[in-house]
Amino acid sequence: MNEIDFLNWVRGTGLQIATIIFVAGVIIRILEIFLLGRKANLAEAKGSEMKSGLRTIITRSVPLKTTFQRSALTVVTGFFLHISLFVVIVFFAPHIFFFKDVTGLYWPALPTQIVDALTVIGIITLLVILIRRMNDKVLRFLTNGEDLLVWFVTFAPLITGYLAFHRTILSGPTMIGIHILSVELLMVVLPFTKLMHVFTVFLSRWYGGAISGYRGVQS
Amino acid sequence: MTNDNSTLTSKNDHASLVDTLASHGVSRRSFMKFCAATASMMALSPSMVPAIAAALENARKPSVIWLSFQECTGCTESLTRAHTGTIENLIFDAISLDYHHTLQAAAGHGAEEARMIAMEENHGKYLLVVDGSIPLDNPGYSTIAGISNYDMLMETASGAAAIIAVGTCATYGGIPHANPNPTGAVSVGDLIKDKPIINVPGCPPIPVVITGVLTHFLTFGSIPELDHLGRPKVFYGQSIHDRCYRRPFYDQGLFAETFDDEGAKKGWCLYKLGCKGPTTYNACATTKWNNGTSFPIESGHPCLGCSEPDFWDGGSFYKSLSMPTENLTKTAVYAAAGAVAAGLVVGTANKMKKSKVAASHERMTIDDLEK
Q1: Distances (CA, A) of B207 to A97, B88, B166, B200, B273
Q2: What pTM, to 2 d.p., does this model score?
Q3: CA-CA distances (angstroms) from residue B157 to B125, B130, B189, B253?
Q4: With 90 as the cut, is the pLDDT of residue B61 above it?
Q5: Which of B278, B351, B354 sits opposite A176 (nearest CB)?
Q6: Average pLDDT along chain B
Q7: Which of the four pLDDT bands, split at 50, 70 and 90, describes residue B175?
Q8: For residues B202 and A80, what is the distance between their CA atoms, to the nearest angstrom?
Q9: Do B315 and A11 touch (CB under 8 A)?
C-alpha cells in the first residue's frame, strides 16, 4: 500500500467503518440511557424539574468559587481545551467542507491563523493535563487505561492535524492520511468511553438539576 | 526526433550532440544557457555548468529504445509537441531514438529489426524509455508485432543500462490500473527489479523533466537522486501546494466555492473545488507548461494529482481532500436506522422481561414470614 492508497483508504473504507461504529455506538448508548427507565417518584413534586434542569445546564459551566480555588488548573485547562477543540473542529475551513459534504450545512470559517493558534493552545493544554495527571499522586492513583486512551485519541488528531497543516515531518498525503486515521480512531473510541460526554453532558446536567428541582432544593 | 535514416541505423550516427545542435542553428551561447538552466533546475551548483557542457559536448548519441504499451500517446504528444522548437527538443534530436513505434517511419518487421539491432549493438548501454502499463491478465490485451507487452519489456529491459518509466501508466499502472483494473495492468517497476528505474510520472509528465533526466545521465553517467517512489527528487521533491502561487489564499482561508464565483475570479485557493495540490509532488508550479506559460491551477482548475499513484481512484476530482471519497451521509443514515431499530428491539425485549417478572412477582404476606 502506497501513501495515496492509504489516503484513499482512510477517506473511503476507513471512514465508512468509523462512521458506522460512531453513529450506531452513540445512538445505542443514548437509547440505553432513555430505555433503562426510572422508577416512578411517588413523592410530591416541590418544584419544577424542567426549570431547574435547564438552569443547571448553564450554571454548571461556571465553576464555584471554592472549586476554582481548590483546582484552578483543572478549571482553566478544561476551558482552554474545550474552546480550542470546538473552534478547531467546527471553524477550520477544510473541516467545514467535510461537514457540508455529509450534512449539507455550511457556515463561515475562521481565519486559519486563529485556528492554528487555538490548535497550539489545545496541544499545550493536553500536555499540561497529562503532566499534571502523572505528577499528582492522587490523580495518578486514579488514572486507569481508559483515561490514557481517551487522552491519546484526543491528542492525536490535534497534533497530526497541526503537522499536516504545517506540512512537516512526513509527506503531505501520509500526514493528512494519519490525521484522518486518528480522527477515525477517535470516532471508534468515543461512544464506548467517557468521551461519550460530548453527547451526554447536557443530558446529565439536566438530570442532576431536575432531581434537585423536584425536591425543591438548589442544584 | 529521429528521422527515417536513423531509424534503422545507429552505426554511423555517432555525431556529438553539439554538432547536431550546431546543425540546427543553436549557438554555443544558447547551448551554455541551456546547461545553466538545467543545472539550476536540477539544483546543481553553478560550478557544474561547465561540467554539464563538457559532458554534453563530448557525449556520443546514446541509443534510446522507446516502448509504448497500454497508453494514450499523451506522453509522447507532451514530450514532442509542447516545447516545439526549443533547445530541449533538440536534445531529443540528439539522442539516437532507435525505436519508437509512434514516431518511427519504419513499420512491421523493419521496425522490430531496428529494435533488435539497437539492442544488440548497444547491449548494456542503451536507455529504455517506457510509457504505458503492462497487462498481465491476458497477453492478448496488448501486443506489438505479435509480441506481448510483457515479453517485449522483459526482452528489451535485459540489456538496458537504465529504464525511464514515462507517465503515470508506466510508473504506477495509471488509468489502465484504475479500479477494477480489467487488464491486470502493472507498472514497469512492478516487473523489473534488477535495473535502475527512473519514474517520471504525470498524465502527461512535464517534458523538461525528461531532458533533465537525460542531461543528468549524459553528464554524470548515472541516474539522479530518486525519492521513495523512484522519482527524481529535483523535480518531485516539493508538492504543488507548497509551491503554489495561490497558497497565501489557502493560509488565509480564502477559497473559490464554484468555478465562476467571486473567489474564482479573484484567483483564490481551489482546495474546496477538489485541488489535490497538498498531496501531489511534481514541478508544475515551478517549471509550468507550454513553454512556461502556466499550469492547471493558474488556469483556474484544481490539480488532479496525476503524478501520484492511483490518482484515478481517489473519488471525485472535484471533492476536496477533507471530504470523504464515498457517500458518508447514506452510511450514517443506515447506521443510525439500524442502531435505532436494534436499540428499540432490545429495549422492548427488556421492558417485556421486566413486566413479566413484575407480573409473576408473588407478594409475601405475614403468614409467609411465620412459616
Answers
A1: 35, 8, 10, 10, 27
A2: 0.83
A3: 11, 10, 11, 49
A4: no
A5: B278
A6: 85
A7: very high
A8: 45
A9: yes
Contact B239, B279 (CB under 8 A): yes
**B 255-284 residues inside an 8 A Cβ radius of A:** 255, 271-272, 278-281
Q: How close does chain B come to A90, measured CA to CA in Å?
A: 13
For the ranges A112-116, A128-132, A198-202, B3-7, the lowest mean pLDDT is seen at: B3-7
Q: Do A31 and B343 touch (CB under 8 A)?
A: yes
Round to whole Å and give the CA distance between A9 and B313: 10
Residues of B in contact with A110 (CB under 8 A): 253
Question: How remote is the C-alpha of A210 from its chain's centroid?
Answer: 24
Which residues of chain A neighbour B311 with C-beta distances below 8 Å?
A: 4
Model pLDDT, residue B90: 54
- d(CA A183, nearest CA chain B) in Å: 12
Question: What's the domain range around A88?
Answer: 46-60+70-215
Burial zone of B231 (CB within 10 Å; 0-12 exposed, 13-18 middle, 19+ buried): buried
Question: Cα A88 vs. chain centroid, distance in angstroms?
Answer: 12
Q: Is residue A130 part of a domain?
A: yes
**DSSP symbols for B278-338:** GG-B-SHHHH-BTTTTB-GGGGT-----TTSTTGGGSS-TTS-TTS-SS-HHHHHHHHHHH
Taking only the tens place, the pLDDT of each residue in A29-85 is 999 888 887 888 888 889 898 999 999 999 988 888 998 888 899 999 999 999 999
Looking at residue B1, its pLDDT comes to 36
Q: How confident is the model at residue B4 (pLDDT cuts 50, 70, 90)?
A: very low
Pairing of strands B63-68, B143-144: unpaired
Rounded to 5 degrees, φ, ψ at B86 are: -95, 170
CB B215 within 8 A of CB B91: yes
Mean pLDDT of B295-321: 92
Residue A110 covered by a domain: yes
Neighboring chain A residues of B241 at a CB cutoff of 8 Å? 167, 172
Write down the residue that cell numbers 514515462 correspond to: B166
SS3 B144: strand
With an 8 Å Cβ cutoff, are B343 and A32 in contact? yes
Place of cell 468509523: A18
Q: Is residue A25 part of a domain?
A: no
Other CB atoms within 10 Å distance of the CB of residue B258? 10
Tell me the ipTM for this assembly. Answer: 0.85
Count structural domains, chain A: 1
Question: Is there a domain that residue A35 lies in?
Answer: no
